[in-house]
Amino acid sequence: MNKYLKIILGVLGALLLAIGLLVVTFILEMKPDKDEEEKIWSQADAYLEDNFNDNFEIYDTLYDNMGNFGFEYAAKVRDKKTNTQFLVYYDDETKRMVDTYIADKWAKDLESEIRPFIKENFGETTNIFIFFNDTIGQELGIDPINLTSYKEFDVKPTIRITVPRKNSDGDEKLVDEFISFLRNEDKLQHGSVIIEYIAESGEILDNEWGKDF
After folding, report:
1. pLDDT at 70
2. Which of 70, 71, 123, 208 minimizes the number of CB atoms within 10 Å of its CB?
3. How far is CA 14 from CA 3, 4, 22, 114, in A?
4. pTM score, whole prediction
5. Are residues 72 and 118 located together in one domain of the fold?
6. Number of structural domains, the chain?
7. CA distance 58 to 38
């Protein structure tokens, strides 16, 4: 009996030790590496020195421990004049430093253009998320110091409209009217509109759908 009890206790002890090691490993992986944070800060500082002016400052770093972005570490940068916040990071594919300034600035500009329509027609609690390609500024060769409007380029951003309710019969008509508003009022000529139904608690209430135009 004692022999079997010792075996059981030994197995349980080994399992607890393994679980403990997994927990410790997980916690360590969730914490950013200070050396890597200092490295990206230094790289971003040099990048800003070469491509921006004194109106831009690094205020923090971002560690993507969940794999949500195409990088592991990024510097958080702020335009002190417009308060536009964006990221600077090393792109493993292009092997160079890149920034999301144009993408984030244009998203902010477009949101201000469409927010009144969205709130009036989809409801005050509706959220808007706009996405341009992260590196669109570099792709189009835009000087961030002499910024131009997204309307001067043939861009196709994605507009995600999040409403805290289930799908309604009138939603397709609302989206069509929104697209007409974008084009007729010279807000945006091409892009994608996606509508998703998510409660304030985060619960998905219905399947998302969208339209390209």
Report:
1. 85
2. 123
3. 17, 15, 12, 59
4. 0.81
5. no
6. 2
7. 12
